[in-house]
Structure formats: C-alpha cells, structure tokens
C-alpha cells in the first residue's frame, strides 16, 4: 500500500521524541534506557516493510500477514516488494527513511548490499529488524527474527538418510545437491545443515554425486548456488546434469533441493527426462510448503518440504515492534549464532517443521491452506 505517513509521526520524528525512545531500546543503547521520557504509541509509529519479491509465494504471505497484524494494532505501515532487484529495494528503503519511518523490517535480496542504506537509517535513529534473512556487514541492524536455518538443512539431510535408509542400505545412491542463492546468508546455513548430515555418506561412498557438483567443504556451497532462488535456473541446471551425466542410463536417486522454488524447477527437469511419480522417482527435498509444491507432494513429485509458518514469524516480529515501541526489552533466544561480520545480532529463532505427502493435512488443520487450496 502507498505511504500515507501520519503528520504526527513525522513531527515526533523531527522532534527526536519518538526516535529517542526507539533508540533507547536498541541493544547498543540498553545502558541508557531512560533518555526519552516514555514509550511511544502504535498510532505514532511508522513501520516500513521491505520484502524481496512477489514472485515467490512465501514472501506474499509474509508481507500480507505482517502488514495486517501491524495495521490491526494501529501502526502506520508501508509494504514494498522489490522484484528481486537490489537497486529497487535500496530506493524503497531510502523512501521509507526519508518519509519518517521509525522501524524498518527488511528481508534483503542481497544480504551485503544494504550497508550504506542502513547507515542512513541509523543516522535517522531508525530501528532495523532483519526479517528471515540477516543483513551482513553492517553494525546498523538491531534485531533478527528467523527460523532455525541450520535446522532446516538438518531436517532435509535427515529426511534423505531415512528415506534411503542410508544406515542399512548398501547403496550406492546417486545424489545431486543444490544450494540456494549465493547472495543469501540463509542458503549457507541450509547447505551446512544438510551437508553435515550427508557428507559422511558421501565420504563413505554410499552417496555418490555423478555430476561432481559437490562442494569440497561447507564453505564452498556457493559453487552450486542458484542465483535468485530461480526455478528456471534450477530446472536448466538439473537438465544439464541429467543430459551430461546420466545419458548412459544411470538414474538419480536423490536431489537435495534447499527450497521449494528450486524443487519446482528440478521436478520439471525430472519429468522432462522421463522420471514419473512412483517407484524410481528420486527423493526430492524442499522448503516453504509453497502451494504448488504441496500439490507436487500430493502428486508424488516431491518428497518433503520444510514448513516455516510465516504467520509465526510475522507474529514474532510484531511482538518485537511492540516491545521496541513500549521501551521494553526485546525478547530474543539466540545471541551467538548470527554474526554478520560487524556484530552478533540478537535473534529470535523459530522452529520449522517437516511436511511429507502423508502429513499435508497439518497445513489445512492450521489453516495455512484450505482443503480446497490443496484439492483435498
Ligand atoms: C530464503 C528463505 C527461504 C526461501 C528462500 C527463497 O532466504 O529463508 O524460506 O524462501 O529464501 O526466497
């Protein structure tokens, strides 16, 4: 929605009243909490929400839910999507800063690209919350709310171990691993979580990677990253691997896909190459429980997805904002993991959950989807 900043909010920001109270509760300034003379009100608080793209289902849900929550609580909001274009996101943030935002909630496209913009935000005493993806290389991020990203990868890896019964089966199984966008810090955690589970089986030879697209170490994950989490790029990469390394009749047994948008493209490539649901269809992982992927799971074209209930993340961020505005301590549960190169950002980590074709009703029971959405 368009910005209709409240004059009162702008006036308060200009007077330094509200920003003073916001600044007082950011982590660095906890030592001087009484500088403001009182908490602000939701009605006087402007929250800018910067989301990466509408092209992925989850971000639409994320944005709509958080904006709805904040508006119901009386905040002025501006929700912007940046079409996965970094420059567009920078412009949107600059507009929010210039128009008097008090809090910025940012899911960055490129984790490292926003440092100068965040300096402008800091100069305007704006509190910054990194949403789902961390903001790197800047001291000017106050809090981070996300799911346990390493845990997402662990769940994918453990699912593969169980699905192929890697402990007991003789193997070897043909594995094709993928990683997420090289500019997304989460992708590093997803890969590390999965690879820490799977690499022992690669080392023992139970899993083999016919394409050779297997990073030497966790730190080399970007070598198999799919820029922008693009389904199309994942599809053509999978097609290339199938054409180049499986032409002689070898079959893929398992594909490690870090999220659902990649899994969609990979499933397309598999189908195009003659793989049909049922026996012989590879184990294929995912993340986000996007609708198209849940439908694919029901159709036997994807084996699992790690579901991150975006409503819980929005709820947590709304709570953070409430605590910030009230001048209270902001609740976090991880102050060790998320070092952004400049500081360890106080983080609230939520727990994701595995969904399989047998458990998709969980998504309906929790009203994430209607039965109709899933053709149930
Ligand atoms: C990640 C996010 C995932 C996935 C991906 C693609 O940062 O944590 O849930 O959606 O981006 O947008």
From TrEMBL:
Main location: other
CDD domains: PBP1_ChvE
Signal sequence interval, chain numbering: 1-23
Organism, scientific name: Cellulomonas dongxiuzhuiae
Cellular location(s): Cell envelope
Keyword Plastid assigned: no
Domain Periplasmic binding protein: 47-328
Name assigned to this protein: Sugar-binding protein
Keyword set, alphabetical order: Signal
SUPFAM superfamilies, alphabetized: Periplasmic binding protein-like I
InterPro entries associated with the record: Bact_Solute-Bind_Prot2, ChvE-like, Peripla_BP_I, SBP_2_dom
Domain of life: Bacteria
